[in-house]
C-alpha cells in the first residue's frame, strides 16, 4: 500500500478505524520533488500539509538584506508545511525547498480540515504533532539564548546525527544562528575533539 508509512506515523499518537484510514488515504496524493524544487514559495498561500516519504527539505526565511535564515529541516517520517500560512490562509513568509530528490505525501488544507471535523482522532494526531513542534521550537529558542555556538552545534550533532550528515554546513550554520565563518571554526574544533 503506498501510504503505509504515513499511516504508521499517525498510529504513533492515535487510532483510526480501517474505514477511516481508507477515507484518509483517498484524500492523499504522492508528489515527486526534484532537488532544489520548491514545495512552497514566499508570498504564496500554503494549501497543503506534506509528509516526507523520502528526501530532505529545508524551510527558510529571507530577510531584508537578502540573507537566508533556516527555520527547520524535514526528513523521512517528518511533516512539513507553513502552519501560519495554512491556518490563516495568508501568504507565506517562508520557503520550503528540497535539498535532495524527494517524495512527499500531500493533503489539501481544506480536505484535511474537513476530515479532522469528521474524525476527532485525526484532530488529536495533529494537536499532539503541533504541540511537539511548539515544544521543539521553544527548546531551540532557549538553546539560542543559553548556549554558545559550539554547544548548540554539539547538541545539534548529537540530537540529529542524520541531519548533520545530509545537510550542507552553511544551512546548519544559519539554523543555529551562526555565521558560516564562525561555524567553520566551531566545526573544525568539534571534529578535532571527536
UniProtKB/TrEMBL annotation:
Gene3D superfamilies associated with the record: Jelly Rolls
Matches recorded under Pfam families: cNMP_binding (PF00027)
Q: Which residues form the Cyclic nucleotide-binding domain?
A: 31-116
Q: Which domain of life is it from?
A: Bacteria
Q: Tell me the SUPFAM superfamilies matching this sequence.
A: cAMP-binding domain-like (SSF51206)
**What's the protein name?**
Crp/Fnr family transcriptional regulator
Amino acid at each position: 500500500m503506498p501510504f503505509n508509512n504515513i499511516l504508521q506515523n499517525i498510529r504513533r499518537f492515535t487510532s483510526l478505524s480501517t474505514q477511516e484510514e481508507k477515507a484518509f488515504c483517498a484524500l492523499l496524493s504522492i508528489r515527486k520533488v526534484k532537488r532544489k524544487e520548491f514545495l512552497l514559495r514566499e508570498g504564496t498561500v500554503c494549501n497543503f500539509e506534506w509528509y516526507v516519504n523520502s528526501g530532505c527539505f529545508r524551510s527558510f526565511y529571507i530577510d531584508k538584506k537578502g540573507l537566508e535564515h533556516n527555520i527547520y529541516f524535514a526528513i523521512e517520517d517528518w511533516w512539513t508545511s507553513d502552519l501560519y500560512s495554512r491556518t490563516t490562509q495568508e501568504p507565506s513568509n517562508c520557503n520550503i525547498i528540497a535539498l535532495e530528490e524527494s517524495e512527499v505525501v500531500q493533503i489539501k488544507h481544506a480536505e484535511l480540515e474537513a476530515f479532522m471535523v469528521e474524525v476527532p482522532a485525526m484532530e488529536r494526531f495533529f494537536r499532539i504533532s503541533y504541540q511537539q513542534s511548539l515544544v521543539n521550537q521553544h527548546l531551540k529558542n532557549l538553546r539560542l539564548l543559553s548556549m554558545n555556538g559550539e554547544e548548540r552545534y554539539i547538541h545539534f550533532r548529537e540530537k540529529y546525527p542524520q541531519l548533520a550528515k545530509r545537510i550542507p554546513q552553511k544551512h546548519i550554520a544559519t539554523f543555529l544562528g551562526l555565521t558560516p565563518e564562525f561555524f567553520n571554526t566551531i566545526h573544525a574544533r568539534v571534529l578535532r575533539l571527536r
